[in-house]
Amino acid sequence: MPAIATGANAANRDLIYIGVSGDGDSLSIGLGHLCHAIRRNLRMVYLIENNGVYGLTKGQFSAAADIGSTAKRGEANLLAPIDPIALGLTLGATFLARGFSGDKTQLVPILKAAIAHRGLALVDVISPCVTFNDHEGSTKSYLYTRQHELKATEADFVPLADEITAVIPPTGTTTVTMHSGDTVQFRRVPDGYDPTDRERVVEYLLERQGQGEVVTGLLYVDESVRDMHELNETSKTPLVNLPYEDLCPGSDELAKLLKRFR
C-alpha cells in the first residue's frame, strides 16, 4: 500500500491520501515499505488496523502480538512485538497517534488532525478481531483495551477559520462553541506531557507500557519537517496536470541530462 500511495502522491500532490493496512502487512511483509514512507515523510494518513493476529489465515500471531498474549487455541506468544509508535519515533516520524476502534469520541478528532498534518500521519488503531482475538487472555480484545486504555491527551480538531479563543482552567472542563454551532468540552492535558518532545514521549510510553497500559491520543507531532515534495523541490503543479511536452521533452534533452552524470 505505501508504494502505491507514494507513486500516486508523486503524480498528484493536491489529493488527500488515506491508506488502510493491517498490523500483519504493515509490521511483517510490508515493514520495509512502511519504514521508507516514514523516512520520506510522504503526505498521507497511514491507518493500521491493529488486532495482533492474521485473521484471514485463522488467527496466527502477528508481529504486533504481545509476549504472553494467548491465541484462541490457548498457546502463548513468545516473541517480542513490534510497536508501530516506537518504530515511528526511531525513524523520525512527524505525526504519531493511537486510538481504539471502540472509542469514536477520541478517534474521530485524531483522524481529522491526521488529515490536516503536513507529512505522514501514522495512526495505530487497536481493532480487536471478534473472531480470533477477542477472548480472555488476549491483549488486543475489547475488554482488555477498555480496562487498560490510558488517554495521554484530550483533543479536538478545529479547521482553519476565524480564531476561537478560550481560557481552559487547570481542572475541570470548558465548553467552547465551534464554527458549526456544536459545542466541545475541553480538558487540559496532564502536566508534563509534551507531544513535541520526542525523548520524553519515548520515556512516557515505555513507562506506561511497563504498567500494562495502552496509551491513546496524539502522542507525537512535529510540523517543522518538510514533506516529500518539499524535500525534492518538485513542481508546484501536480505532474498529472503538466502537458506531455513538459514531462517528456524529447531525446535531445534526455541526452543533455545524462551527460551531467558522466
Percent range for β-strand residues: 15-25%
- Can you name the CATH architecture of the largest domain? 3-Layer(aba) Sandwich
Work out the radius of gyration: 21 Å
**Beta strand count:** 10
- What is the number of helical segments per DSSP (H or I, 4+ residues)? 10
Which runs of at least 5 residues are low in confidence (pLDDT < 50)? 184-189
CATH fold-level topology of the largest domain = Rossmann fold
Mean pLDDT: 79
Q: Give the proportion of residues in helices.
A: 25-40%
Shape: globular
Tally of domains: 2
Class derived from helix and strand content:
alpha/beta
- What is the chain-wise order of helices and strands? HEHHEEEHEHEHEEEHEHHH
According to CATH, what is the class of the largest domain? Alpha Beta
Question: How are the strands of the biggest sheet laid out side by side?
Answer: 1-2-6-5-10-7
N-to-C span: 35 Å
**Main beta sheet, described?**
6 strands, mixed
Give a written overview of the molecule.
- With 262 residues, the chain is an alpha/beta fold.
- The protein has 2 domains: 2-154 and 189-259, Rossmann fold; 162-188, no CATH class.
- The chain contains 10 helices and 10 strands.
- The chain has helices at 2-11, 23-29, 31-40, 84-91, 104-116, 142-148, 198-210, 228-232, 244-247, 251-259, and strands at 18-22, 44-50, 53-54, 60-61, 95-100, 120-126, 149-151, 174-177, 183-186, 214-221.
- Strands 1-2-6-5-10-7 form a 6-stranded mixed beta sheet, sandwiched between helices. It has a two-stranded antiparallel ribbon with strand order 3-4. Strands 8-9 form a two-stranded antiparallel ribbon.
- Helix 5 links the parallel strand 5 and strand 6 (120-126).
- Helix 2 (23-29) packs across helix 3.
- The two termini are 35 Å apart.
